């Protein structure tokens, strides 16, 4: 069976060596030695000054919205994983959708200003499939209207934009280290900010507001990751360069052999060093997509409809019409992409798509 992705499992002995340290320390959570080591190694790998590793990629969105959203309107993208919009509703803010760019698939920055009201507090945009949003335009709009910018960078591990880590942009960036993501700790995630005062608040918020055992520094929640998850991250991290190189091989193979005259692939923004995280293809219509999906499924190949449905059509979210996002969501399929994928299997996938597209 070939799925859209396959979780990378490091050699068991290497994971066990980290477990041995946990047993020796007799320490499982509350920012233990392995969590601190993982944060240090990620800072080096990503070339960032600050990182706070968390228990998943959703709680960082909630914490950032709790601190910066103020219960107001949050301008956001309808083309993302549901966690992006759900976090807004969960934090008692109101999502205000702005349609996406038809080729970059990120929020259409030219439509943001028209959606701003006196209740708007933040822009929460997703670097979808690791493709950066128009960071400069969004930054200028935010500055002009005194808004905060949160980037859901769940897909963007290792991406650089203009020579800097993508996580360095916006007031806050978040990442997910879920097992299906590029880099993983089983479950996990991270928060990034360059603002020292905000970092302080994010830090206390992710640990119940604890300021030592007996005092509190504001409201908090439990966003802590355990030593067991940090061990997985430490065992996976040394393989990232190989994983990304192998994924590049797969992406290059698709690019070379897929007949691209009737299907659209992701347009990566200039000045980006991309991470080969997803391979979305957009078909001419949904009927073609369903036909391709059915034929692949019959061969035990399971691409995923990332992201369907367009989030503005989810029942608890608003009903604003988003024609580009709805059109793309109905026609996009993410093809299998992972390091171990064999050329022989890729040929089979490509042959089916080239015949049916
Ligand atoms: C995976 C994902 C999340 C949530 O991350 P978890 O670690 O699963 O909580 C948030 N946003 C996007 C865009 C994602 O793909």
In short:
This protein has 357 residues and is of the alpha/beta class. It is 37% helix and 15% strand.
3D architecture notes:
With 357 residues, this protein is of the alpha/beta class. The chain has two domains: 3-238, Aspartate Aminotransferase, domain 2, CATH 3.40.640; 239-356, Aspartate Aminotransferase, domain 1 (Alpha-Beta Complex), CATH 3.90.1150.10. It has helices at 12-25, 33-46, 59-68, 82-90, 135-145, 196-205, 227-236, 240-257, 286-298, 323-331, 343-356; strands spanning 2-3, 52-54, 73-76, 94-97, 120-126, 148-152, 160-161, 164-165, 172-176, 189-192, 264-265, 272-273, 279-282, 301-302, 332-335. The strands form four sheets. A seven-stranded mixed β-sheet has the order 2-10-9-6-5-3-4, with helices on both faces. A three-stranded antiparallel β-sheet has the order 8-7-12, with no helix packed on it. Helix 4 (82-90) links the parallel strand 3 and strand 4. It binds pyridoxal-5'-phosphate. Pyridoxal-5'-phosphate binds at residues 56-58, 80-81, 83-84, 126, 152, 154-155, 176, 178, 189.
Mean pLDDT score, rounded?
Answer: 97
What is the assigned CATH homologous superfamily of the largest domain? Type I PLP-dependent aspartate aminotransferase-like (Major domain)
Distance between the termini: 22 Å
Q: Quickly name the level 1 CATH class of the largest domain.
A: Alpha Beta
What is the CATH third-level topology name of the largest domain? Aspartate Aminotransferase, domain 2
Which consecutive residue ranges, at least 5 long each, have pLDDT under 50?
none
Order of strands, widest sheet? 2-10-9-6-5-3-4
| Ligands (ions, cofactors included) | pyridoxal-5'-phosphate
Question: Helicity, in percent?
Answer: 25-40%
Query: Radius of gyration, rounded?
Result: 20 Å
Count of DSSP strands: 15
Order of helices and strands: EHHEHEHEEHEEEEEHHHEEEHEHEH
Cα shape: globular
Number of H/I helices: 11
Q: Proportion of β residues?
A: 5-15%
